[in-house]
Design brief:
Elements: E1 15-19, H1 26-32, E2 35-36, E3 40-42, E4 58-60, E5 64-68, E6 79-83, E7 92-96, E8 99-100, E9 107-116, E10 121-129, E11 135-144, E12 151-160, E13 165-174, E14 187-195, E15 198-205, E16 211-218, E17 222-227, E18 230-239, E19 245-254, H2 260-275, H3 279-297, E20 300-303, H4 309-329, H5 356-366, H6 370-382, H7 384-393, H8 415-418, H9 423-439, H10 442-463, E21 465-466, E22 473-474, H11 492-515, H12 517-527, H13 533-542, H14 578-581, H15 584-587, H16 598-604, H17 611-621, H18 632-642, H19 646-657, H20 674-688, E23 699-700, E24 708-717, E25 720-727, E26 730-737, E27 741-745, E28 748-752, E29 757-760
Helix pairs in contact: 4-20, 5-6, 5-9, 5-20, 6-9, 6-10, 9-10, 9-11, 10-11, 11-12, 11-13, 16-18, 18-19, 18-20, 19-20
């Protein structure tokens, strides 16, 4: 692996700490210090702005705008949509003796910034030395309410160290933020009012017509002003030497689907409710929320006596950071939101959700918060109409789920991705199967899942072809998970996932026909299901071509074995990311793999492949994978651990867990790799604990890395909480609550109860 860490942040088990401000890392820090509460997000940008390199981003989940694009051929989209920056509720300006604070130019010393993952707070402090010789200690604190998700809080503490006097303060709200990629603001008509210590704005997006209310109430006394897209309050604060002075601002951001006066009144009511709760009270509730969250999702790693404590401490910090970011990005608050590849931490990928959600994020929620997992899948059900329309654009029946979306419509203008990648549809089907298999929620399958499966199978049956020479079914002209190879035939992953999807859809409908005839009849009538369709799906599944040799080595796609070889470890670090340094067509001319393809299906359907098949394919494909996708390292780590390659497993784990903290791909500045963050959790639970959830029973195969003394975590399963403690001598399992549970541990049948079960290390 040619990539190396760019170590910048201090190691701490529960905090991310930056000591000293380095302008070269400004945007990286902004991404890492992002906060969210599922409803809204804010990058770690400076409240007071300034000249330092910055992407000032405040976002609202589900708020987007759209633009037309030229369409030259049928099947290629003619408009796209994208997340836009919304209400800037941090807007602040400080002036002392005529000098305006600008951390990029001002004399700021003792700079420290820290993200507290037990409270969801971001704190920044430094001492501002003015040209007139005054020293002012400033502390900025912010957090987004995890309980009342329309609320956000900003606190500024000012302490004059060597003077007494007045400081000028401007605080405000603004809908004037510019989308960096498009170079324009996408907010149009804005209602702005400022009365006393209250600021109110309501604005409408230019094309999508979405309307948002933003309000704030502040401790500052001053002159209110509302004009254009801004509402400001300008005043002065009297400071006395050595006495800290605090300014609080409580903000409300409301996006409800209402418009006009109805939204305005709802915003005023929400602002009244927010004003009745002090920031300190909100913070106490915030800490309680995170305490409950960490009780089921925390992973604790203890270093072995003979290992490097600093390395293990970095791993501990990394895995907690990943769990923290994922929990604040999505926690089941809405079934009309999904998980964007960057969450709400940046504008790269335009806020779009990809197939990563069902293939990589879902396990985290399945085993920590099943309700949230269900809501994620309901997003796909609520956007089924758009998937049906997309299939029509591609001259197919059924439902084709988009490769990139915020609202269910295809937003990717690159035809080779939008038209050739079938994995969003098969990932949705896999997610339905995985959810029902793990939770036993057959009501979901009856009410929602079966309809999605039927339409996905219908699409696949229309998209499949039959090889003239092999006589086998396969998918032609596709792009698999490895996006370094396009317009290929018989991609093994695509064929195998299609095979499993078609067979599962047929099984579900057969089961409904037999046990729930009324529900089946209603579904058949709603979808105009032809009597022979499920039989056709079975025929295709049974005759699907999987390019596998007698030794078990699976060819990624037709002709892959004949491609010119690239030695990936010889690529200079300076050439990453490759998309920025290699011409587009150059990437497609080698056997280099962007991310797991064959190995991805061995991960998803792990129980369906014998160990020798996993081993020969891992040994072949691992040296050819460049990990240009952030999802890649964790998949390799999980399979390496299963195969007993613990050194490789630990190495990939460190990369996956600290991908953004250590900026391995040199693109953290664009935003966090939010969906891959979920794989850090899976890397522990699926990798080192050996959890597998695709068999008849839960399976565990613990493999503790030698550098760790212990590993502790919990999983939630069908009303039970399973506590796991891995040590060098063995692994202990215990049910904290729930009925006894039959499982498989180290290939032996066991039963978990409230009494601890200790399995010695083999």
């Amino acid at each position: 692996m040619a990539k190396i860490a760019d170590t910048y942040f201090r190691t701490d088990p529960w905090k991310i700490i930056e000591e000293g401000f380095d302008p070269a890392h400004a945007r990286v820090s902004e991404s890492v210090f992002s906060l969210a509460n599922e409803s809204m997000g804010i990058r770690g940008c400076f409240d007071e702005g300034g000249s330092a390199d910055s992407l000032r981003g405040a976002y609202i989940n589900g708020v987007y705008d759209a633009l037309p694009i030229g369409r030259s051929y049928r099947g290629i989209i003619d408009h796209t949509h994208f997340m836009i920056p919304a209400a800037d509720w941090l807007l602040t300006r400080l002036t002392l003796d005529g000098e305006t604070l600008d951390p990029g130019r001002s004399d700021c010393r003792e700079f420290r910034r820290e993200l507290d993952m037990r409270a969801g707070t971001l704190t920044r402090t430094f001492v501002w030395h003015t040209a007139s010789g005054k020293a002012l200690r400033l502390t900025f604190i912010r957090f987004l309410d995890m309980i009342r998700r329309e609320r956000a809080y900003q606190r500024i503490v000012m302490e004059a160290l060597n003077f007494s006097g007045e400081i000028g303060v401007v605080t405000g709200l603004s809908f004037g933020l510019v989308h960096e990629g498009y170079g324009r603001c996408f907010w149009g008509e804005t209602r702005a009012e400022a009365r006393g210590n209250r600021l109110m704005l309501q604005s409408v997006t230019l094309a999508s017509g979405q309307e948002v209310f933003a309000g704030a109430v502040t401790d500052l006394s001053g002159i209110p002003c509302a004009e254009g897209k801004e509402a400001l309050l300008t005043g002065t604060v009297l400071l006395r030497e050595g006495e800290p002075r605090r300014l609080d601002k409580r903000c409300v951001i409301l996006f409800t689907g209402r418009h006009g006066e109805a939204l305005w009144q709802a915003g005023l009511d929400a602002l009244d409710a927010a004003e009745a709760v002090s920031p300190d009270e909100a913070l106490v509730a915030q800490r309680s929320w995170w305490d409950a969250r960490w009780a089921t999702s925390d992973i604790r790693i203890e270093a072995a006596d003979d290992s490097s404590e600093s390395d293990v401490a970095a791993e501990q910090q990394g895995v907690r950071f990943c769990s923290f970011q994922l929990a604040q990005t999505y926690n089941g608050g809405s079934m009309r939101h999904n998980i964007g590849a960057k969450g709400m931490t940046g504008e790269a990928y335009n806020g779009h959700a990809f197939w990563d959600t069902e293939s990589c994020c879902l396990p985290f929620y399945l085993f920590t918060d099943p309700r949230a997992a269900r809501d994620l899948l309901l997003f796909r059900y609520n956007t089924l109409p758009q998937a049906l329309e997309r299939a029509k654009m591609l001259d197919c029946k059924g439902a084709c789920y988009p490769i990139a979306t915020l609202n269910g419509e295809e937003a990717c203008s690159l035809w080779q991705h939008a038209s050739l990648q079938l994995q969003p549809s098969t990932a949705v089907a896999y997610g339905i199967w995985h959810y029902v298999h793990v939770t036993g929620d057959t009501d979901f399958l009856r009410d929602y899942g079966a309809e999605m499966l039927l339409q996905i199978a219908r699409f696949l049956a229309g998209r499949v072809g039959r090889g003239a020479q092999t006589g086998k079914y396969g998918f032609f002209g596709v792009m698999g998970p490895d996006e370094f190879h396009m317009m290929v035939n018989n991609n093994a992953y695509t064929n195998y996932m299609g095979k499993r999807t078609l067979a599962y859809a047929a099984d579900v409908l057969a089961g409904m026909r037999e046990t729930q005839p009324e529900a089946f009849a209603a579904l058949a009538a709603k979808t105009a299901l032809a009597p022979g369709e499920p039989d056709e799906w079975r025929t295709i599944a049974d005759g699907m071509y999987i390019p596998v040799g007698g030794d078990g080595l699976i060819e990624q796609h037709d002709g892959y074995f004949n491609l010119p070889h690239t030695e990936i470890n010889e690529i200079p670090v300076s050439e990453f990311p490759l998309y920025d340094h290699w011409s587009y067509d150059r990437i497609y001319r080698t056997d280099m793999i962007k991310q797991p393809d064959v190995l991805m299906m061995l991960y998803l359907y792990n129980a369906s492949f014998p160990e020798e098949v996993k081993r020969i394919n891992y040994d072949f494909y691992q040296p050819r994978t460049i990990h240009e996708s952030s999802l890649s390292p964790a998949i390799h780590s999980i399979l390496a651990a299963e195969l007993g390659k613990m050194d490789e497993a630990v190495r990939f784990f460190g990369y996956a867990t600290r991908l953004d903290l250590d900026n391995y791909n040199r693109n953290t500045r664009e935003g966090l790799h939010t969906t891959s963050i979920a794989m850090a959790w899976a890397n522990i639970v699926y990798g080192f604990a050996g959890l597998r959830s695709d068999g008849e029973r839960l399976r565990f195969a613990p493999r503790l890395p030698e550098r760790w003394k212990s590993l502790r975590f919990s999983v939630v399963y069908r009303g039970r909480v399973i506590r796991v403690r891995m040590e060098r001598e063995g692994t202990a399992f215990r049910l904290e609550e729930g009925d006894p549970l039959p499982v498989v541990i180290a290939d032996r049948d066991r039963t978990l109860t409230r009494e601890e079960l200790f399995i010695p290390r083999p």
